[in-house]
Design goal:
elongated, single chain, mainly alpha, about 0% strand, about 100 residues
Length: about 100
């Protein structure tokens, strides 16, 4: 099928612009704003048994009851990782052996 060539001027070019668009917009300098960097997240899969999953669910439930906003399982695990990094290796090994 042959395509016909479009001729003439676009209606967008020939129609008048609304007044709010034609007014000068003040330029905003972004140099004064601090730069925000997104945290790069990487997905990592772990195998957890039913007991561990139930522990996470219970933690989420109890933390959400104490919090004024919803906390996800991921945030709970991040908090546990922070606590584990502050623990002594002996205490962490003891907890691992008990689980």
């Amino acid at each position: 099928m042959a395509k016909t060539k479009i001729t003439g001027q676009s209606k967008l070019l020939t129609s008048p612009l609304p007044q709010r668009i034609t007014q000068e917009m003040p330029s905003v300098s972004r140099a004064s704003e601090p730069t925000r960097r997104r945290k790069i997240t990487k997905l990592k899969n772990y195998k957890l048994n039913e007991v561990d999953l139930e522990r996470i669910r219970k933690l989420v439930e109890t933390v959400n009851e104490a919090s004024h906003r919803k906390i996800s399982e991921t945030r709970i695990i991040q908090g546990l990782l922070l606590i584990g990094s502050r623990m002594s290796p002996e205490k962490l090994l003891k907890a691992i052996n008990e689980s």
